Amino acid sequence: MAAAVLKDGSHVLSSVISSQDEIHSLYGGIVPELASRRHIETVIPVVEEALKQASVTLDDIDAIGVTQGPGLVGSILVGLSFAKAVAFATGKPFVGVNHIEAHPLAVFLDETGDGIDAPEFPYVALVVSGGHTSLIKVESFTEFSVLGRTRDDAAGEAFDKAAKLLGLGYPGGAVIDRLAKEGNPKAIQFKRPIIKKGNLEFSFSGLKTAVMLRVKAERSGCVTARGDQEVALSGEFIRDLAASFQETVVDVLTKKALWALEATGARDLVIAGGVACNSRLRAKLAEAIGDNNTRFFAAPPRFCSDNAAMIALSGYHRLKAGERGELDMNAYPSI
Ligand code: KG4
Ligand code: ZN
Q1: pTM for this one?
Q2: Which residue in 44, 186, 200, 221 has the most C-beta neighbors within 10 A?
Q3: pLDDT tens profile 97-134
Q4: What distance in angstroms lies between residue 149's CA and the mean position of ligand 2's atoms?
């Protein structure tokens, strides 16, 4: 659950995030029922904290932006019902926001209020999270067109599954990022999925299977008198696999992001979503982009992963464009 207060549509007065990773890590992935129950418990304290940190009261708020989808519908409904209730009780306007369209706008968030170096429309956004991997052409604050998306698993999902297979816990993206720094990215050669020039779709399920088979082969290396026995994975193997896996994903994401720039003629590239925190992805894109007449933008990590400030920013522009939420508005689980 997250809540934020913005001034003038981009100046972040507060951004509070109550992570549920601790609860879900026990199960190796998100448990939808637990997620929505936790949202119910945290929605009021998180909103109160956001108001407090911004030194404002509810009376000072002009309008409310709220995530309408896509995502886990039980959790989205908690936030949406709360926003509707506040809007109804206070008479303030509210608007529903597509959270995948909010991610690419996070680069406009301004923490100091002094102004920021922002991309120019139209730009290409690579949205890489636990649930989505999409290349989007961002025409304006409210107009988007999808250039390509994943046919199966999302990039973050692949990171989380690889981490689980290596026994690194959940969510695993940040751990793989850390371990990969000490591993050899060339130690294991993984096939780059659908790397045909110009194709802007992604696929990560084959890579997941390849990681699974490689881990299985490594584990079953020892035969004892009692039959096959699993071998514990060595630190070196884990680091090398993490580096090789990460390099494969980053390579595919980088190539396709550059192709998307070429295809659209856009000058600026923005990365967003939890996987945009990945240090190798940031470094490789910055390096690749530096070669041509293009620019590369990434929000600070706390605005790359799910946060309410980007929802407020998107909501501000939607309200300015005349959109208004109605009390019968429903959540949508997928795009
Ligand atoms: O955008 P996000 O916070 O939530 C979703 O909307 O899914 O993204 C979460 C995903 C998780 O899969 C997590 O493992 C991944 O982002 N992630 C990373 C890194 N930090 C978070 N993946 C790779 N490298 C990282 N440093
Ligand atoms: Zn997200």
Answers
A1: 0.91
A2: 200
A3: 999 999 999 999 999 999 999 999 999 999 999 889 99
A4: 14
